[in-house]
Amino acid sequence: MKSIIKAVIITNVPAPYRIPGWQLISKMSDINLNVVFCSKSNIDITLNSDSLGFSVYYLRGKYREYGIRFLHSDIGVWGLLSKLKPDVVITTGFIPTYLFAFTWTIFHNIPHISMTDGTIKSEKNLSFIHKLLRKIVYRHSAAFVGASKGSMELFEKYDVDASKVHQSSLCVHNQNFNLPDTEKVSDFLFSGRFIDLKNPIFAIQVAAATAKILGRKTTLDILGQGEKEQEIRTFADSVKDHVVVRFLGYLPQLELPSVFSKARIFLFPTKFDCWGLVTNEACAAGLPVLISPHAGAADELVKTGVNGYVLKLDVNIWSEAASRLLCDKTLYTQFSRQARDMLSAYNFENAAAGLAAAIRQAAGK
After folding, report:
1. Is the separation of the CB atoms in 105 and 112 below 8 Å?
2. What are phi and psi of 254, to 5 degrees?
3. Which one-letter DSSP state was computed for residue 258?
């Protein structure tokens, strides 16, 4: 048995919520980590370095984004894997490039690991073919890695052996957001792309409705950019008598902690998210979170009555909950403290440990 396991991850783009965990794995004495990206990041270009602490490769196929989904197809991954000669291959989805890599493992009798941040909710509308592909891949996988409890439930639905399932959560640098002495200057914070799916106008409606309950203007900071920006700005202007909306644009990772720490409540009214990494950032900053049930983090990282509220998308319900938090200092302080407590297990050390355990299991160690 080889003492060092050569593991290759095939994934979409360099992501700040994964790279630090993989860097920790690269420092482990028994794992030689290599990562193959379908494309370079077009959001955080600082991650497009070849010096990430592990071997990096970029494929040449066309990378296309469709809203929150993407497609990539490059048979070149086959030749690259033959050159790298890995002991274990990890794929992170079911696009053609990943399926080519999976098929390579079958042809070469190499252990395969299925890694996903999907949930039963996120995959409820899959076609028969999509579900069949998952059954085939899972049947021939040696270990499994999920980002959340929702992912664990998804694997269970496909009758995956629970002893082969490991968790590697999506994470942020929690300690960077812990700025407890920062003065609060805004009532609400929204962070997300300016698309209908993220529901930014709903956040403005909540801030305006809360103002009417409190009998004063509220303030809402909005982080992000996107195709709906002019529409959102127009709506914000229509309620300016009730809420002051500040558009902060897109900010790099290092500037986010300061913005989060200056807000009181985080609004996450998404219509769909497998997880919702912005909730990690909010909890790390000690912000109570109002979240829709359509996010994977709902009822796992954010729990009603603990560190926020999981609420159906009704402006009146959200504004009542927000008003309660803004008026009750004791409740707010309790939720703020518990937000950080809830997040404590979601860190890069645990994420690295989960993936490393899967790699070792797949390799038979």
Report:
1. yes
2. -65, -20
3. H
CA 270 to CA 149: how far, in whole Å? 19
- Bridge pairing between strands 55-58 and 263-268: unpaired
**DSSP code, position 242:** T
Amino acid at 252: P
Note the helical H segments in 116-223: 128-139, 149-157, 200-214
Mean pLDDT of 327-344: 97
Contacts of 33 (CB under 8 A, 6+ apart): 7, 9, 22, 25, 26, 54, 55
- Residues 86-119 have pLDDT tens digits of 999 999 999 999 999 999 999 999 999 999 999 9
Q: Which amino acid is at 8?
A: V
| Assigned token pair, 356 | 């490393």
CA–CA distance, 196 with 105 (Å, rounded to integer): 39
Q: What is the largest CA-CA distance in the chain?
A: 70
Residue pointed to by tokens 């902690």: 257
pLDDT in tens, 168-205: 999 999 999 999 878 999 999 999 999 999 999 999 99
Task: Tell whether the model's pLDDT for residue 47 goes beyond 80.
Answer: no
Q: Which residues contact 365 (CB under 8 A, 6 or more apart)?
A: 1, 5, 30
